[in-house]
Write a structure and sequence with these properties.
Largest sheet: 6 strands, mixed
Distance between the termini: 51 Å
Low-confidence stretches: none
Number of helices: 4
CATH class of the domain at 5-34 and 42-50 and 84-146: Alpha Beta
Mean pLDDT: 91
Strand content: 25-35%
Radius of gyration: 25 Å
Shape: elongated
Helix content: 10-25%
Oligomer: single chain
CATH architecture of the domain at 5-34 and 42-50 and 84-146: 2-Layer Sandwich
Structural class: alpha+beta
Length: about 180
């Protein structure tokens, strides 16, 4: 059996990317940083690049199964994970976008918007300016925000369960196993 995780990291990236696109001006593209041989989006109006920095375990596993199922065959193993995601904002208005991201990711609005995806924003750091020298030896505006997020991936595995148990009985140990 091949095990899978739900939600996947791709689903987390998609949820965060969709959320960022919904709060920034139209035309701002959101991309992931780990795509090889893919050109950067056009410099105008700009774009946001998401980079996963760290996955940190927050608790030990939580095992769950359906107790109402008369013959369960799987168990769900949940892990709680904190993600550190770097959001690089590029473009003329990148400083404003960084302010929007650092503000909204710390709000109830973000919690409600991301709730269906299972991602919970925890906090962000303050936006910081990170000059970037492009291949053409030109400076590009880049503002960086690090968002801390939580999600709870679940892996379902096969599991044997005992659904019938013979009732325990009492035996006289001295009679059944006489002392030697």
């Amino acid at each position: 059996m091949t095990l899978t995780v739900n939600p996947s990291l791709d689903a987390v990236f998609e949820a965060i990317g969709d959320f960022i696109e919904s709060i920034l001006p139209n035309g701002v593209v959101v991309v992931t940083s780990d795509e090889n041989r893919v050109a950067q989006p056009p410099p105008l109006p700009g774009y946001v690049q998401m980079t996963l920095r760290v996955q940190k375990r927050l608790m030990t596993n939580l095992d769950k199964f359906d107790p109402q199922n008369p013959a369960p065959t799987t168990i769900d193993i949940q892990q709680s994970v904190q993600l550190a995601m770097q959001l690089d904002c590029y473009g003329p208005a990148s400083g404003d976008w960084a302010t929007i991201l650092s503000t909204v990711f710390r709000s109830e609005y973000a919690v409600d918007a991301l709730d269906p995806s299972g991602v919970v924003p925890l906090y962000t750091d303050a936006p910081r300016f990170g000059t970037l020298v492009a291949g053409e030896e030109q400076y590009e505006r880049r503002w960086i925000v690090e968002a801390q997020l939580q999600y709870n991936p679940v892996v379902s595995t096969p599991q044997q369960f005992a659904n019938v148990v013979d009732p325990p009985g009492l035996i006289n140990v001295d009679a059944s196993y006489p002392p030697s």
